[in-house]
Amino acid sequence: MTQTASFSHEPVLRDEIVRLLVPETPRPGLRAVDLTLGLGGHAEALLDALPADATLLGVDRDERALAIAGRRLARFGERVRLLHGRFGSIGDLLAEAGLDRVDLVVADLGVSSMQLDDASRGFGFRASADLDMRMDASRGETAADLLAGADEAEIADWLHEYGEERDARRIARAIVRGERPRTTDELRARVAGAVRHRPAHRDPATLTFQALRIAVNRELDELDALLAALPAMLDRGGRVAILAYHSLEDRRVKHAFRAFATACTCPPELPVCRCGGVARAKLLVRGAIKPSDEEIARNPRARSARLRALEWL
Ligand SMILES: C[S@@+](CC[C@H](N)C(=O)[O-])C[C@H]1O[C@@H](n2cnc3c(N)ncnc32)[C@H](O)[C@@H]1O
Known about the structure:
The chain has 313 residues and is an alpha/beta fold. The protein has helices spanning 3-8, 14-21, 41-49, 63-72, 90-96, 113-117, 143-149, 152-163, 168-176, 184-194, 206-216, 219-233, 247-261, 293-298; strands at residues 31-34, 55-60, 80-84, 102-108, 234-244, 281-283, 306-312. Strands 3-2-1-4-5-7-6 form a 7-stranded mixed sheet, with helices on both faces. The structure holds S-adenosylmethionine.
């Protein structure tokens, strides 16, 4: 993908995110954080919508994404600071940036178009490549390493839990039979030979690749750590928007947001509240926002997106 093509790529639910996050009267010196900077599309839209004294910290675990986003956001000068890191360690990243609490947080979970479209990174099964799948190519085990070091039960658990793959056990058995796969082709062929259920509209390897990617990048642990860190990082009136692309993530966001926004935590059988709990946040969206049919037609990868947002009280 060329730089120009990346820049013109429309970030998912961009206008809705700006509408939900940018207050009518932003406080002076507002501090924003984009936890998944990617190609900088959401960050750019937020910076354009915020007053000139607002700043943005952009975080990504992929150094290549940071480099591209840095060029895209260069026109905002000192208003932008970029940090390489994982949002699961957001407390450390904020401390490194000299920030205590922030006013605005956006997270657009999962992999970027750039990562998916770069065949050499091994996220997809359509091109032949080493089975890598690390969003941060500078550290950690690749998907091939992970498969080489795991036993059949562990692999089946990943496929079942992270891919909701109905043929998890059969695929795991095929993976551990003989040499472990080290390329996307080899893995795809093992899956194709093992599956009983062949969905009409997707490659049989889709869920296996999704599950492995989640395992390699510990995506659900990262999200859990972020959701647990939110109360300590948001200032009063601070707003958060999270975009999830599959139900495993969206369910976590939904439950965490509901818990923040629930006052009473007494068991439902109690006739009156005894806990005296107060809600810590207000939901800005009932349920989740989904992309319109027009957006999905322009950008099919937006299809499964679910946006949830809240305001800290
Ligand atoms: C869907 S893309 C974000 C696209 C971005 N909103 C835009 O407008 O271009 C997700 C990005 O989040 C990054 N990412 C995923 N998990 C992360 C984590 N735990 N910590 C930091 N970055 C992460 C990926 O490397 C990827 O660049």
